[in-house]
Design brief:
Blueprint lengths: L1 H4 L18 H30 L5 H22 L2 H7 L5 H33 L2 H9 L1 H8 L2 H9 L3 H26 L3 H21 L14 H32 L1 H35 L4 H28 L1 H9 L7 H11 L2 H6 L1 H6 L3 H22 L3 H25 L6 H25 L5 H21 L2 H31 L1
Length: 512
């Protein structure tokens, strides 16, 4: 039965250091919860920090950081070189290979550090503001500090120690929060934000070393790690392509239409992406090491992928459908009446968010099966088609860009699904049949919400629509055998996780 398969114990599924094997399904479920909670806490700390610090610093201070941020974000793509994913994906990894990956990552971090120092005068010249150059140069400290902990964090993820990973991330987030607020009161300048980030990065790296017993040595071999470095290079190439395609819309809108229209587009995009990313990120982080362990077990590999995709869609699709149906009311309700112009942009972007999780989930199929070259080729195709779509839609303003983006991503989804599934236990027809009930549920939700509009206040319509949207989607899933098995498995995993936590707490109290 599917519900027993997903929680089946496998020999490689035991967490390192555990006395007994841990069911892989429960490990993945708990990992997603731990990672999700850490993501949520990070988001809340960021909001709280912004609320407090914004009352101390000026918009100009935030502007200085924001102007330097794209430079740092771009050069950071060259820091990891895809080697964290290589560490997680490798079927086996020797101590010598771990050493090599650590030293290569540290060398790349040192190179990026020198690059930031070198380009900082150019950044000052470009913005005609020396402060931006100083911030860019000082950001180099973040690069070298985070580089020292990347391999340890990747090894923790590889070992499925998701609680430890979440703890490491939270330590960094909390120290960042406390340092930023304290320094804001003391320095009262943009340096508080930068030094807060440095403190958070240092705390995260120290926590990673403390949580992972592995220590690097000088035993390294580029020759024996060549294939891994080549695979990492392909992943890094994909990340670079993705960076340009995902930022080109802002660049084009800002250049042609100016700051106001760009602000409408940027807030609409962030409003659409924030909840999806909050859900998708923890699932993606958990599923890569899990799927890598299941490559040689086709049935379980297929089940793990489809179950994770169903979980993401069950959490995101009903809310997306409500957002689509109420876009004219939702945007001004959340952002204020000044943002009414963002409603049509948000409508189209929210429409794309229905199937966006399907396209983004295919990355784990490429990476878990070691197809770095295919992923890189896909990155070239998707980047070209995305940028061309932006250029076509630009004549009609931000709304035209949003429409073009939705059209391009729909085309890309139809192409990438069979491409990514090729050679794996997952079939394109599996993904299509999985998505169909969610699409049908979204249509039904749209009709129901449309009928409610005009009968009550917009806020009440949204609040009243969400619970039945989720219940209706779950009911529709239960009409299909695989959907029903997924719901049963999820309930079982929740029960097992709660029981396991209670047993762990009882054992800890008895030992005390």
């Amino acid at each position: 039965m599917a519900n027993t398969e997903i929680t089946d114990q496998i020999e490689a599924g035991a967490i390192a250091g555990s006395a007994t094997p841990v069911p892989l399904g429960r490990t993945a479920f708990e990992g997603a919860i731990h990672t999700g909670v850490s993501q949520l806490v990070r988001a809340l700390l960021l909001i709280a920090s912004t609320v407090v610090v914004a009352r101390i610093l000026t918009p100009d201070d935030y502007g200085v950081i924001a102007m330097a941020a794209p430079v740092l974000a771009f050069v950071l793509l060259f820091q990891d070189l895809g080697l964290s994913a290589v560490t997680i994906q490798a079927r086996t990894i020797s101590d010598e290979q771990s050493n090599t990956l650590f030293w290569v990552t540290l060398a790349a971090s040192a190179g990026v550090t020198l690059l930031l120092l070198a380009v900082s005068p150019l950044v000052s010249w470009f913005y005609q503001d020396a402060r931006i150059g100083y911030i860019t140069a000082a950001s180099a400290a973040i690069v070298i500090i985070t580089g020292a902990g990347l391999q340890h964090l990747a090894l923790l993820t590889r070992e499925l120690r998701f609680r430890a990973v979440a703890r490491v991330v939270l330590v960094g987030a909390v120290l960042n929060f406390l340092a930023t607020i304290g320094l804001a009161f003391w320095l009262r300048s943009y340096w508080a934000i930068l030094f807060g980030n440095v403190a958070g990065a240092a705390a995260q790296s120290v926590a990673a070393w403390t949580s992972q017993n592995w220590r690097p040595s000088r035993r390294a071999s580029l020759r024996r790690t060549g294939a891994m470095l080549k695979f990492g290079g392909a992943l890094a190439g994909f990340d670079i392509l993705n960076f340009f395609s995902r930022n080109m819309d802002n660049i084009l809108i800002g250049r042609i239409w100016g700051a106001g229209p760009l602000g409408l587009y940027d807030r609409s995009y962030s409003l659409m992406m924030a909840p999806i990313q909050l859900i998708r990120a923890p699932v993606a982080r958990v599923m890569l090491p899990v799927m890598t362990r299941l490559v040689d077990r086709p049935d379980r590999y297929r089940l793990a992928y489809l179950s994770s995709l169903r979980a993401v869609l069950l959490l995101t699709a009903p809310a997306a459908a409500v957002a689509i149906a109420t876009s004219n009311e939702l945007v001004p309700l959340l952002l204020g009446d000044r943002w009414n112009g963002a409603s049509p942009i948000f409508f189209w972007l929210a429409l794309g968010s229905l199937y966006l999780p399907v396209a983004s989930s295919t990355g784990v199929l490429f990476i878990s099966t070691g197809r770095g070259r295919s992923l890189l080729l896909w990155g070239v195709f998707s980047s070209i088609t995305t940028i061309l779509a932006f250029a076509v839609g630009l004549s009609w303003g931000p709304t035209g860009v949003a429409k073009a983006y939705v059209g391009a991503t729909l085309l890309q989804t139809l192409i990438v699904v069979p491409w990514a599934a090729r050679g794996t236990a997952v079939r394109a027809s599996d993904i299509a049949s999985l998505f169909a009930p969610f699409l049908a549920a979204a249509g039904g939700i749209w009709l129901v919400v449309g009928a409610l509009q005009g009968t009550m206040e917009p806020a009440l319509v949204i609040a009243a629509s969400l619970p039945p949207a989720y219940l209706g989607t779950a009911f529709l899933l239960a009409l299909f055998p695989e959907g029903r098995a997924f719901l049963v498995s999820t309930v079982q995993l929740v029960k097992e996780t709660v029981a396991g936590q209670r047993r762990g707490a009882l054992a800890a109290s008895n030992e005390g």
